[in-house]
Every structure is written in C-alpha cells, then in structure tokens.
C-alpha cells in the first residue's frame, strides 16, 4: 500500500522540530482528516538553509512533511514556490489516492511559511515565479489539488 520511501520517512522523519526565530512559519490543517502541519523556514540570502516541521496526523502526513522539508533545503524562494503536492508525492514514490490530501497539506504548509516570510520582509505578495497565473495565491497548480480533493469526496 505504501512505498518504501513513505514508510522510511514515517519511521525516520527528517527535520522534525522547530526553528527558533524562524524566518517563515506556516501552519495548515484539514478538518476532514484532522491532520495539522506546521512548517518552519530559515532563509539566508534568498536560500532556504533549514526547514523543520511538526505534524499531528497519520503516517502519510508525517512522511509528506518530512519529504517536503528535504525538498525545500537548498532551494531559492522561487524554486520553493514551485514545489507542488505532485512533486512531494513523486519524491515519495506515490501515495494511495485516499492519502493525496496529505501531500496537499505539505504544499499548503510550504506556501504558508513562504507567505509568512514575505510578509515579514515586505516582499510583494504577487511576486510569483514566471508563468504563475496567481489564481490560487501561488503557482496555479491548485487546480490539480481541487481535482484530487473532489475525487476523494465522491
């Protein structure tokens, strides 16, 4: 049911914890499943130097949070904005359809932490990477998420 990578990131999560005086903090939750993710970012010269998380939820929620932090470290802000739930799922070698919402939460936690960073540093809210339509407040990939969430509700 779960890939080896999902099981590894659940059993041995990377980057668990808080970053004191984090440059960006984002918390998201899903009332439907009860998962809550909090993401912390340390950013220096536009590069994410550290990312940590605290997650209350199922194994897939922990695994997606862990993988998201791995994907973030070393990225520029623009690169981090492009990390989608699909990228998190692919890095974990997939998730069962009923757990796709966990990868969506990881994407939302990243976006919330980046938005917090931008707000704290007076960066333009509409300063998205090139090609972004801005329709969702990020990269436009949220149409994919709506489709996955809609499929789960049916």
- What does the overall shape look like? globular
| CATH arch. level architecture | Alpha-Beta Complex
Rg on CA atoms, Å: 14 Å
Q: Please count the beta strands (DSSP E, at least 2 residues each).
A: 3
Number of helices: 6
Percent of residues in helical segments?
Answer: 40-55%
Mean model confidence by pLDDT: 85
Integer count of domains: 1
Order of helices and strands: HEEEHHHHH
Lateral strand order in the biggest sheet:
1-2-3
CATH topology: Sufe protein. Chain: A
The portion of residues forming beta strands comes to: 15-25%
Mind describing the biggest β-sheet? Answer: 3 strands, antiparallel
First CA to last CA: what distance? 21 Å
What structural class do the secondary elements suggest? alpha+beta
Essential attributes:
154 residues; alpha+beta; globular
Describe this structure in words.
The chain is α+β, with helices and mostly antiparallel strands and 154 residues long. It has a single domain, classed as Sufe protein. Chain: A (Alpha-Beta Complex), CATH 3.90.1010. Helix content is 44%, strand content 18%. The chain has a three-stranded antiparallel sheet. A hairpin with a 2-residue loop joins β2 and β3. α1 (4-11) packs across α2 (59-72) and α4 crosses α5. The longest helix has 21 residues, at 100-120. The chain is globular and about 45 Å long. The chain starts with a helix and ends with a helix. Residues 136-154 have low confidence and may be disordered.
